[in-house]
């Protein structure tokens, strides 16, 4: 017997007409196309309203009971997307889910006017879904939409998708990564742009810690899995195209500043060729004029007088601070002041082998080739998840020679290259568990195509 849930098409039409969901609305007069907000779960500006329509479908389809179940917006969104992908009624005509200002998708409803009127009339009743509805066959032929976060696993090699087997490999074979920077014109567009953080006064934006990070989940069953192969290929290709422009790696950064383990400022999206983290503004300093400047907050909110005094001393000696930039396929760092800076790839680093950032010279702290190798080892169960978060300790040796935790350090800076975060999440969506813990290692399902892809991307 079929599950007791309404037909998606008439249900969704009714929700759009209701006007109860911000951003969910018709985009043309004949109501054959609609837009739906589609924010990525990693965005810092994610709000509860952004998940309302996904939550509503979870309730209507019986997959979420408010009084007994824990809320999980990630699962709601995934199940809603899967429901759309299984129906021939819906076709993506515009995917702006990566838009920085207004992320959304536009869908076209593929049906005749007569059929649509019938669907609208049926909204008046409590329609239930029949077993046949899960196996669309008749009706207007609309190809399944290209969406994100889709499973690339065993079914990728089914007969229906044989034509897509080599697409991922081909996409990366086309990439040629050579040693040159973006054009001077593109660099100058960033001149004198300044970002300020939590304690900066004036018209600056206050950024708070992220409370919602989207976990990519494995579909619970074959009926929940989105269309394999093509859609994840398109998502991966999209992100590769965004990561490499004119054969130069380009990425946004997420920068977080901690005073003894307490988050005091966060810059969710730092764009450009590089950025400069400093305490005192020195606008005419040579060599950094094209970098975005991020200002470290002062110590006025530190109640401990000794901590405040030592932190202030480090900041005053910081000079032009810490510079981080992307060059070719590498991420480089340099210190531009008298306060020594040490770095590692983990806030739990216990190696006791400090690595210092060079003064006035750039030190390579990470590169694309290393990420690919680590991701490949992760998929092959030879290693853990890639460690691409960069941790900088200002004014103190790190890792601590006495094995003191990172929360004891006066100033720690976390820098996350967002391109690596997104690419890893796409790979995880191909079959990895989202569980993490001390005794749990993430495992990917057998995925020959993704493995071949990473092998083709590996560099010496």
From TrEMBL:
This is Interferon regulatory factor 3. One of its GO terms (cellular component) is nucleus. CDD domains: IRF. Keywords: Activator, DNA-binding, Nucleus, Transcription, Transcription regulation. PROSITE patterns: IRF_1, IRF_2. Residues 117-140 are annotated as: Disordered. GO terms for molecular function: DNA-binding transcription factor activity, RNA polymerase II-specific; RNA polymerase II cis-regulatory region sequence-specific DNA binding. GO terms for biological process: immune system process; positive regulation of transcription by RNA polymerase II. Its main location: nucleus. Residues 117-127 have a biased composition (Basic and acidic residues). InterPro entries: Interferon_reg_fac_CS, Interferon_reg_fact_DNA-bd_dom, Interferon_reg_factor-3, SMAD-like_dom_sf, SMAD_FHA_dom_sf, WH-like_DNA-bd_sf, WH_DNA-bd_sf. The gene is IRF3. Residues 5-111 form the IRF tryptophan pentad repeat domain. Pfam families: IRF (PF00605), IRF-3 (PF10401). It is found in: Nucleus. SUPFAM superfamilies: SMAD/FHA domain (SSF49879), Winged helix' DNA-binding domain (SSF46785).
């Amino acid at each position: 017997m079929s599950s007791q849930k309404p037909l998606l098409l008439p249900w969704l039409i009714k929700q759009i007409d209701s006007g109860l969901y911000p951003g969910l609305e018709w985009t043309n007069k004949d109501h054959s196309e609609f837009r739906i907000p589609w924010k990525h779960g990693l965005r810092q500006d994610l709000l509860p309203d952004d998940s309302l329509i996904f939550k509503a479908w979870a309730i209507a389809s019986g997959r979420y009971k408010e009084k007994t179940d824990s809320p999980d917006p990630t699962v709601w969104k995934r199940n809603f997307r899967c429901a759309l992908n299984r129906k021939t009624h819906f076709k993506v005509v515009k995917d702006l889910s990566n838009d920085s200002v207004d992320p959304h998708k536009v869908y076209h409803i593929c049906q005749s006017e007569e059929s649509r009127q019938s669907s609208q009339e049926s909204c008046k009743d409590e329609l239930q879904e029949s077993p046949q509805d899960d196996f669309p066959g008749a009706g207007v032929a609309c190809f399944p939409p290209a969406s994100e976060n889709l499973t690339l696993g065993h079914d990728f090699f089914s007969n229906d998708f044989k034509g897509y087997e080599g697409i991922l490999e081909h996409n990366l074979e086309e990439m040629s990564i050579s040693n040159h920077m973006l054009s001077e014109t593109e660099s100058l567009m960033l001149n004198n742009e300044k970002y300020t953080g939590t304690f900066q006064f004036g018209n600056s934006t206050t950024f708070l810690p992220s409370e919602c990070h989207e976990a990519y989940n494995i579909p619970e069953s074959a009926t929940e899995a989105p269309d394999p192969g093509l859609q994840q290929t398109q998502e991966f290709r999209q992100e590769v195209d965004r990561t490499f422009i004119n054969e130069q790696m380009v990425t946004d950064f997420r920068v977080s500043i901690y005073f003894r383990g307490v988050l005091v400022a966060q810059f969710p999206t730092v764009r450009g060729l590089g950025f400069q983290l400093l305490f005192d503004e020195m606008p005419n300093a040579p060599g950094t004029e094209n970098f975005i400047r991020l200002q470290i907050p002062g110590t006025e909110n530190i109640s401990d007088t000794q901590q405040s005094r030592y932190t202030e001393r480090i900041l005053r000696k910081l000079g032009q601070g810490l510079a981080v930039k992307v060059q070719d396929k590498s991420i480089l760092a340099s210190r531009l002041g008298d306060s020594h800076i040490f770095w590692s790839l983990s806030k739990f680093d216990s190696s006791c082998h400090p690595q210092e950032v060079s003064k006035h010279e750039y030190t390579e702290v990470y590169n694309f080739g290393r990420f690919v190798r680590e991701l490949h080892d992760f998929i092959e169960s030879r290693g853990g998840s890639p460690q691409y978060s960069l941790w900088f300790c200002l004014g103190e040796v790190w890792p601590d020679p006495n094995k003191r935790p990172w929360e004891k350090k006066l100033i720690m800076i976390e820098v996350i290259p967002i391109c690596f975060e997104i690419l890893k999440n796409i790979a995880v969506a191909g079959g990895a568990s989202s569980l993490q813990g001390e005794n749990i290692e993430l495992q990917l399902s057998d995925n020959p195509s993704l493995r071949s892809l990473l092998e083709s991307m590996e560099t010496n």
